[in-house]
């Protein structure tokens, strides 16, 4: 029996897709119209030629990368330890990791300012380095729900208890086990978490604005108020960037160890053989 | 002095005592199996030897050294797990080399040892493969090579064959035994499969409820089970109610008088006791030495190829036995009367 073409589902999908495709196309079209009477990438060139754009995006990139590093170093051993030693506490830790989704960033940052303000016992906000540190730590907190979830899911698919015991029976210390067995096996998960963290903290506004740091988020907002065509160009670029991150996440998440980036040209004997 | 000794080991989880005073002495190069149903504590004892569990009380020594409180990574044990537990991020050679790198071996030495181990398990051609590219049997052989590579003092096998299919299970267990003999490594093997334990062990420890019910060679365990549990768990067994007719060893079983080989030890005040009889000790054909005859009704006949299993009701007692099939053999019909012959010396009293 020949299947008839699924008319209704396809129409529904197209209709739903149009809700985000049409504005996207419109924005893209608008971003090309900076020079009167012709279509071109003038708005994009204007963005890239702006010194402020380059400094803010560099600043935010560095802050995000540091946040990813700190997040991974804190979260991987924690998630591993909880799964291995105190699995009953996992729901509690999971709940804590979700708090940043419940508590708005503005509350977090006001808390920081009060706690580490000029008349506190640790006046971090009085120095640039201290404020940078607060911003990075804030990013670590904001990305915790995503990082923890990604890493925890990564740990769920490997049998960490048995792998740990196997490593120990071969003489490995706990630290060595984490470094040579656990970390490499959740690397894909860490990278997924890292891309999520990156895409969140790169354009983050509230923390950066209230801590008064020269980050990308506040620049975006400022640009939106001052200019017409450049924000559209930036929106398209950040959209492309986010999609790029998602593609990379997929690539890292599905790549198996020892797998080549591209298939071999010469054929190889069947992968699976029986004993 | 035995090589591996466990003295009065007890392990309690919360209020649940899983191992209750376990004693065992294993000689160097010996292959000992822990056999028992799930929950009998066999894996817990193995994990105590490995150091993954610390005994609540008791002592474990390896080669004269007290290891009771020693961390697992300091014990020089090799362990093979049911779930293979190969490191997914490393290929076969990397997995085998793992323990050698930790032991601080040089590059050339490590390489040579990896090749030697690959040769031992016959997988030299798969050194570059990753675990996910191999079958279960191959993975488990790699796990064995990985455990053996750093030359451990004791090899521990935790149900290594349970996840494999029947054919590979048999061939791999023979391979494990062969490698163990060649290397002369002291080995403890945990299994719930009595056939597996029988076929590869020097000695078997039958465990029940956290204790060792019986420790002995496979033939001792099978032919002279010391407890009712061992008798029932290892092989199939006919348990018959008997009554002491005359001291010291004349009993009545299903209306037939039987002269036992040993004096009766466990008859209660009314003279009741339990006798056990292996199915292979019974036959429909009378022969010399089979001095006891049970007349009864055939309840079922199961044709299983080379063997025919017959169940009979003899004076209210159910007995079952196997006969070898032969082309000229006509099995008895269900419902017919038949006579099963047994030797009184094959009947033994179930004591504990």
From TrEMBL, chain A:
A Pfam match: BPD_transp_1
Compartment(s): Cell inner membrane; Cell membrane
Protein name (Swiss-Prot/TrEMBL): ABC transporter permease subunit
GO biological process: transmembrane transport
Major location (coarse): membrane
TM stretches of this protein: 7-30, 57-80, 92-115, 121-142, 188-211, 231-253
UniProt GO cellular component terms: plasma membrane
Organism annotation: Fertoeibacter niger
ABC transmembrane type-1 domain residues: 53-252
Keywords from the UniProt entry: Cell inner membrane, Cell membrane, Membrane, Transmembrane, Transmembrane helix, Transport
Keyword Transmembrane assigned: yes
Domain of life of the native organism: Bacteria
Family: Belongs to the binding-protein-dependent transport system permease family.
Membrane topology: Multi-pass membrane protein
InterPro entries noted in UniProt: MetI-like (IPR000515), MetI-like_sf (IPR035906)
PROSITE patterns given in the database record: ABC_TM1 (PS50928)
UniProtKB/TrEMBL annotation, chain B:
One Gene Ontology cellular component: ATP-binding cassette (ABC) transporter complex
ABC transporter domain segment(s): 4-234
Superkingdom as given in the UniProt entry: Bacteria
Entry annotated with the keyword Nucleotide-binding: yes
Listed GO biological process terms: quaternary ammonium group transport
Gene3D superfamilies: 2.40.50.100, P-loop containing nucleotide triphosphate hydrolases (3.40.50.300)
GO MF, one annotated term: ATP hydrolysis activity
SMART domains according to UniProt: AAA (SM00382)
Keyword Amino-acid biosynthesis: no
PROSITE patterns: ABC_TRANSPORTER_1, ABC_TRANSPORTER_2
Keywords: ATP-binding, Nucleotide-binding, Transport
Xref: PANTHER family: SPERMIDINE/PUTRESCINE IMPORT ATP-BINDING PROTEIN POTA, SPERMIDINE_PUTRESCINE IMPORT ATP-BINDING PROTEIN POTA
Name by which UniProt lists this protein: ABC transporter ATP-binding protein
Organism expressing this protein natively: Fertoeibacter niger
């Amino acid at each position: 029996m020949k299947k008839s073409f699924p008319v209704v589902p396809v129409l529904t999908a197209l209709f739903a897709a149009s809700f985000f495709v049409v504005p996207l196309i419109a924005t893209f079209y608008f971003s090309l119209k900076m020079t009167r009477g012709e279509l071109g990438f003038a708005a994009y060139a204007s963005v890239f030629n702006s010194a402020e754009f380059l400094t803010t995006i560099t600043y935010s990139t560095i802050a995000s990368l540091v946040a990813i590093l700190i997040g991974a170093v804190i979260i991987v051993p924690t998630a591993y330890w909880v799964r291995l030693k105190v699995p009953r506490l996992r729901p509690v830790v999971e709940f804590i990791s979700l708090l940043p989704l419940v508590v708005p960033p503005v509350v977090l940052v006001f808390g920081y300012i009060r706690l580490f303000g000029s008349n506190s016992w640790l006046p971090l906000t009085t120095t640039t380095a201290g404020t940078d540190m607060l911003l990075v730590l804030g990013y670590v907190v904001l990305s915790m729900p995503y990082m923890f979830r990604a890493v925890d899911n990564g740990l769920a698919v490997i049998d960490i208890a048995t792998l740990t015991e196997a490593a120990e029976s071969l003489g490995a210390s706990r630290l060595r086990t984490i470094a040579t067995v656990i970390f490499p096996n959740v690397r894909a998960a860490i990278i997924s978490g890292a891309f999520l963290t990156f895409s969140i903290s790169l354009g983050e506004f509230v923390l950066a604005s209230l801590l008064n740091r020269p980050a990308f988020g506040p620049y975006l907002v400022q640009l939106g108020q001052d200019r017409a065509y450049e924000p559209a160009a930036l929106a398209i670029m950040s959209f492309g960037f986010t999609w790029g991150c998602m593609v990379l996440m997929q690539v890292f998440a599905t790549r198996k160890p020892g797998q080549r980036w591209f298939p071999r040209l010469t054929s190889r004997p069947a992968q699976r053989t029986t004993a | 002095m035995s090589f591996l000794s466990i003295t009065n080991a007890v392990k309690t989880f919360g209020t649940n005592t899983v191992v209750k005073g376990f004693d065992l002495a294993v000689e160097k190069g010996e292959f000992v199996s822990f056999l028992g149903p799930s929950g009998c504590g066999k894996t817990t004892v193995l994990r105590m030897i490995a150091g993954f569990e610390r005994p609540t009380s008791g002592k474990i020594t390896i080669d004269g050294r007290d290891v009771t409180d020693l961390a697992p990574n300091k014990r020089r044990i090799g362990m093979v797990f049911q779930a293979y537990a190969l490191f997914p991020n490393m290929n076969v050679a990397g997995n085998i080399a793992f323990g050698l790198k930790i032991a601080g071996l040089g590059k050339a030495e490590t390489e040579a040892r990896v090749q030697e181990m690959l040769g031992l398990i016959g997988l030299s051609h798969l050194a570059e493969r990753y675990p996910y590219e191999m079958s279960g049997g191959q993975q488990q052989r790699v796990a064995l090579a990985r455990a053996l590579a750093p030359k451990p003092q004791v090899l521990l096998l935790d149900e290594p064959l349970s996840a494999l299919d029947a054919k590979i299970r048999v061939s791999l267990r023979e391979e494990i035994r062969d490698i163990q003999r060649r290397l002369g490594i002291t080995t403890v093997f945990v299994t719930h499969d009595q056939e597996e334990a029988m076929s590869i062990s020097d000695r078997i420890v039958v465990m029940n409820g956290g204790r060792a019910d019986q420790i002995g060679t496979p033939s001792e365990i099978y032919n002279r089970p010391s407890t009712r549990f061992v008798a029932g768990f290892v092989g199939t067994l006919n348990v018959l109610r008997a009554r002491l007719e005359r001291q010291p060893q004349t009993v009545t079983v299903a209306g037939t008088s039987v002269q036992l080989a040993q004096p009766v030890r466990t008859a209660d005040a009314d003279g009741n006791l339990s006798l056990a009889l292996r199915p292979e000790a019974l036959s429909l054909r009378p022969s010399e030495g089979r001095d006891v005859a049970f007349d009864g009704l055939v309840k079922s006949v199961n044709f299983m190829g080379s063997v025919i299993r017959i169940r009979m009701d003899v004076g209210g007692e159910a007995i079952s036995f196997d006969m070898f099939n032969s082309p000229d053999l006509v099995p008895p019909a269900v419902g017919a009367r038949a006579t099963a012959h047994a030797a009184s010396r094959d009947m033994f009293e179930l004591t504990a």
